[in-house]
Design brief:
By secondary structure, the chain is α+β, with helices and mostly antiparallel strands. Helix content is 29%, strand content 18%. Helix 2 crosses helix 4 and helix 3 runs antiparallel to helix 4.
C-alpha cells in the first residue's frame, strides 16, 4: 500500500514550552491529520513559532505568529510503501507550504523536495520513482536503493488523501484552540494555517472540469 502524508519536521526548539507538547525526537516527523492529539497540535504550534516559542506564553506566541506576513514550516510530503517498508522524507529546507507543488508531476515537471539528502522524482512514463537522494552520481552509499515507485495514475488519489488529512488536522487545531480558550486569536490562527498552507482551497487535478 502506498501512503502520502503531510509531515512537519521536529527540529531543535530549545527550552520547555509553557503549554503541553508531545515529546518527539529531534529530526523526527510529526504526521498531520485529524487524529493528532492536543499535545501533538501543541507541538505543531511550537514548531510554527521556532525560536520564538521557547519561554513564551501561548498568547505571546500567537500574537507574534499572527503578526507575521506568512507562516512557513519545515516539512512537506512523505511517501511510503507499506509492502517494502521504505519511506522517502522531505529533505532539508523543504517546506510544508509547498506541498501542492507535487501537481507539477502531471505536466512532466518535478517539485523541489529539499536537499541533504536530495529527494528527487524520476519520471518513468507511466510510473514515478521517488528517490531519497536522486542527485546525479549520488545514488550510492546509504541512499543507493532508497526509493518508492508508484503508478502516475495513483498520484491524484494520494494528493486528495493529503488534502483530506490536512483538513482533518485543521479540525484538530480548531478544537485545540477552543480547549485552550484562545478565543479570537485561536480562530485567526486556524485561518492563517489554512491560508498559508493552502489546505481547504480546491485541489485542481488533471481531468477536473
Amino acid at each position: 500500500m502506498l501512503t502520502l502524508q503531510a509531515v512537519a519536521e521536529v527540529a531543535g526548539n530549545s527550552g520547555a514550552m509553557t503549554w503541553p507538547v508531545a515529546a518527539m525526537e529531534p529530526y523526527s516527523w510529526l504526521v498531520l491529520d485529524g487524529g493528532c492529539t492536543d499535545e501533538q497540535v501543541g507541538l505543531f504550534v511550537s514548531l510554527l513559532g521556532g525560536e520564538l516559542a521557547a519561554g513564551a506564553s501561548i498568547d505571546e506566541l500567537l500574537e507574534a505568529l499572527l503578526a507575521e506576513e506568512g507562516l512557513i514550516l519545515a516539512g512537506g510530503l512523505r511517501i511510503g510503501d507499506t509492502a517494502t517498508g521504505v519511506e522517502v522524507s522531505p529533505g532539508c529546507c523543504a517546506g510544508l507550504e509547498d506541498w501542492r507543488d507535487w501537481v507539477e508531476l502531471f505536466d512532466g515537471g518535478s517539485p523541489w523536495l529539499g536537499h541533504d539528502p536530495g529527494p528527487q522524482v524520476e519520471n518513468l512514463g507511466h510510473r514515478l520513482r521517488v528517490w531519497q537522494d536522486g542527485g546525479p552520481g549520488r545514488r550510492q552509499g546509504r541512499w543507493a536503493d532508497v526509493y518508492v515507485e508508484l503508478p502516475t495514475s495513483a498520484l491524484s488519489g494520494l494528493l486528495l488523501d493529503v488534502r483530506r488529512d490536512l483538513i482533518g488536522f485543521l479540525g484538530a487545531l480548531r478544537a485545540w484552540t477552543v480547549r485552550m480558550a484562545l478565543g479570537d486569536r485561536g480562530v485567526a490562527l486556524v485561518e492563517a494555517v489554512d491560508a498559508n498552507f493552502a489546505i481547504s482551497a480546491p485541489l485542481v487535478l488533471p481531468g477536473d472540469g
